[in-house]
Amino acid sequence: MELLTAVAISVGILSGVWAWISASFGLITWVGFIGCTSYFASGGKFKGLKKSILANLSGVLWAMCIILGTKYIGGTYISYILTGFFSFIMCIQAKGKLLEFIPGAFCGACATFGAGGNWSLVIISLICGGILGHVSDMGGTFLSLITRKKEF
């Protein structure tokens, strides 16, 4: 079986399992899918898992800085200023190897905003989603290998 088909089967099955598990444990299902998407967008494999999770978590941090800064500093324009500043930070941090995946930071920030600042559930759901992506990827690779036609 070709790799893409095998990964699609693995992702399909494990996404259904994730939807059930996340609902059962009160996690944020859609945030987990953002973590999974971030994993694949970062290039996959263990390196992509590490890269996407670290970037996602940095985005959660910067989003909370925007949320809390807006709340405690107040003022009409402060949220715009903080959004601009921390968007810059999410890009410039990519100069460091550990945080080089800029889209992952924005995924983490967007998930945090979308979840109303519930950072603890966002973090757990993003990490679970990244793991979901990695396990789906490995499962697809395994399925492809065991079903590949042998050429003589």
TrEMBL record:
It comes from Clostridium baratii str. Sullivan. Pfam families: DUF1097 (PF06496). Keywords: Membrane, Transmembrane, Transmembrane helix. The keyword Membrane applies. The keyword Transit peptide does not apply. InterPro entries: DUF1097 (IPR009476). This is Inner membrane protein ycdZ. The chain crosses the membrane at residues 17-41, 76-92, 99-116, 122-146.
